[in-house]
Amino acid sequence: MRGNYDVWFRANSPEHYDKLLRGERPLVELTMRQLCVRSLRLCKQLPNSPITWLFLVLLGSMAAAYGLLVDNWVRTLFRFRRAIIESVGTDSFAGFLCWLCWCVTLAMLATCCGYFISPASDGSGIPVMRALFAGVYQNPGDMLSFRTLVAKSLSTVIASGSGLSVGRAGPFTHLMAMIGYLMNKMALFRRVNFGQENYNFIRAANFGAPLGGLLFSIEVTAKYYEIKCLWEGIICSSVCILVFNVITFIKRDVLFERTTFAGFDMDYEIFAFVLLGVVTGIGAGIFCRLAVVLRWAQMKLFTKLGLTGPSLKRRTVHIVTICVASTILTYPLGIMRLSDRSIVNEVFRDQNLSFPQWKQISEYPQVTLFVYIILKFLISLLPCGAPISVGVFGPLFTIGAAVGRLYGETLMRYWSPTQSPATYAVVGAACFAASATQTVSTAVIFFELTSQLSHMVPVMTACTMPDAKDPNVSLRVQHLVSKILDIDKKKSAMVEDYSLVDFQPKDATSLSSPLELGPPFHEYAFTSVPVETYPPQVSEDVNLYRVHKIAAMSAWTKVYVVRLSKLLGVVNLDSSLTMLRKEEDLIMLAP
Description:
The chain is mainly α. The protein folds into four domains: 5-44, no CATH class; 50-251, Clc chloride channel (Orthogonal Bundle), CATH 1.10.3080.10; 270-306 and 328-485, Clc chloride channel (Orthogonal Bundle), CATH 1.10.3080; 488-591, no CATH class. It is built from 23 helices and three strands. It has helices at residues 5-10, 14-22, 32-44, 50-88, 93-117, 125-134, 140-143, 146-161, 169-183, 204-207, 210-221, 230-251, 270-304, 312-330, 340-348, 365-381, 393-414, 421-437, 441-450, 456-468, 477-485, 544-554, 574-582; strands at residues 537-539, 558-563, 566-572. It has a three-stranded mixed beta sheet with strand order 1-2-3. The longest helix is centred in the first third of the chain and has 39 residues, at 50-88. InterPro entries: Cl_channel_volt-gated (IPR050970), ClC (IPR001807). It holds the Pfam family Voltage_CLC. GO terms for molecular function: voltage-gated chloride channel activity.
């Protein structure tokens, strides 16, 4: 029995109090419910609790099932739209009007989900999760509530089926975070410690790459990451992709068609992959810069129309304009009406381009492929910053695959390389996505998708080339939505006007006399304050970014991690604070 106030109140004497503490209630007095509760608490106290494994398995299984369900809903919308267009005439003006009405109607329904159900469902999930982990939101329950889950799910499905060039990787990250957060509120998992970092690692089903999806999620969402959570993420993502593969095998469906490429031998062709990395890096940088220009033009338009604040009218104007522009660019060319998955599988296939739409403009498919890249580039820019659930990784991956295929076809025509154009398509997809997101884990996704470890050198070389160029050329795509949503990581709720970047001392002082605190007092160094404080202690659940920020303000060099007054470890902050003081560029959160 625990020593609390009730036990002390029942005791008649100190001896009786000790007897109550040492005494144990007979097992026969416990009901079945009490036995189950005690057994559950005992399981939760184990180092590697079975409850933790159950949570990870259930979360991974739900992620796979949820991803397949969303994908099937989007396919159903695509089939329904194709049936409507074919009934009125594929290349007729009536078909164009039907396509436009379909796009505007579904996009308006998607933005209404964010306006009427939950505004937190708008945008991509990656910057939201980065801001959540950084402590920008003081009430994470609003961002991870069931209401937001419903709105995000509906908006993701409807926006993806509307015909806009949007992805689902970012929104799916937010969806799985909400599912994990709500599962953690269940009585079975309530007292088990699941780090926040685990919630966003269940995106592997989007790529069919458990380890690559896990590493990609870490790169784009976590600035400070607890290594102890890595094994949980690997288990969860592995279960996710296992369930995903089992279901797709039963349904006889595939995510990406696998192709066997010729092995790569180190020769002069490595320079061709280096050049591909440079080309895709510049293209991704142009994409990010044009997204900034587009956002500036939209804000100018909204200001002229008097739509400076969030409103349904502003949402309507924004959505209708991008839908009309996307339809005008998409409908005339037949290849633009195909889904991203169809295009990716086509350019990844180690054979000639076989779709009849490739010869709509010219008898040379490369001409149509070039036009497709330009138009896809433009229509992928339009939804950036739109008030709907939108991701950008999928369109960027598709653009990179098309660029790589065109690059490979050009080399085959004028040079005859040993590698097929499909190899360059896969490498181009990885490089373009890696450059826009400034991640290297896309190379791991490539290895898991193709099982071509012999291409490790050219892929890694090409993926790292975008980082070797001038950083002013490109801007990380996750920074754009963070700037749009105004969720800079330095805007934590602790102190609004205290910069982590500039630690320059100020001459002003708020004290009437410096002797009030004893020796001369430096308001930023805190080295002369004659106060003996307790050792700084934090719980293991405290956000690591907040610990770093408080340590920067208080000049702590060590923080002790405790659980129930027991020391678990020590966090040394000297090197981290030194890096923060030397940091000169503004670090935005990730769309």
